[in-house]
Design brief:
By secondary structure, the chain is mainly α. It is built from nine helices and no strands. 62% of the residues lie in helices and 0% in strands.
């Protein structure tokens, strides 16, 4: 059976078999395939009732895939983009906050670990921007990037 001729439910199950999807993601992906007689809302309700759509699993999946490389803010942004509710996003933020410093240090070591500490304010700023762009909090970034490698640095 070709993918182009699948029913709406088969498409949904195919997507869910590949990875966890939020209700909002499935609705967006399946909306263009709705044909006359299909009831997308009822299908999503059925899938959610059978626990094929589970927001908690979606959040855990995102954390598992992204937390080792990205900061809390970047992971939370992805959760919000997936349409997860604010309570779940806040709970995930609390979970990630406990490990953000360790995760930032690991990302910094992976990228800059073999290099000497930054010798200029410009190099330190470059390394800080790298971590900030990955979604790590500013206070965590300041604690991770070494700052005593050049004259005039009084940040730490």
């Amino acid at each position: 059976m070709a993918f182009g001729s699948l029913s709406l439910k088969a498409r949904a199950l195919h997507l869910l078999a590949r990875r966890e999807h939020s209700r909002s993601e499935l609705q967006t992906k399946l909306a263009r395939h709705v044909q006359e007689g299909d009831n997308l809302a009822a299908l999503l309700d059925e899938l959610q009732a059978r626990d094929f759509i589970n927001p908690q699993r979606v959040a855990e999946s995102v954390v598992h895939q992204r937390a080792a490389r990205f900061g809390t803010q970047r992971v939370l942004q992805e959760l919000r983009r997936k349409g997860l509710d604010d309570d779940l996003v806040r709970a995930t933020a609390a979970q990630l906050a406990d490990t953000e410093l360790q995760r930032a240090r690991a990302v910094w070591r992976q990228r800059f670990g073999s290099a000497p500490p930054p010798a200029t304010p410009q190099e330190r700023a470059r390394q800080m921007r790298f971590l900030a762009a990955r979604g790590f909090a500013a206070d965590v970034v300041r604690r991770v990037v070494p700052g005593r490698g050049y004259d005039g640095d009084e940040l730490e």
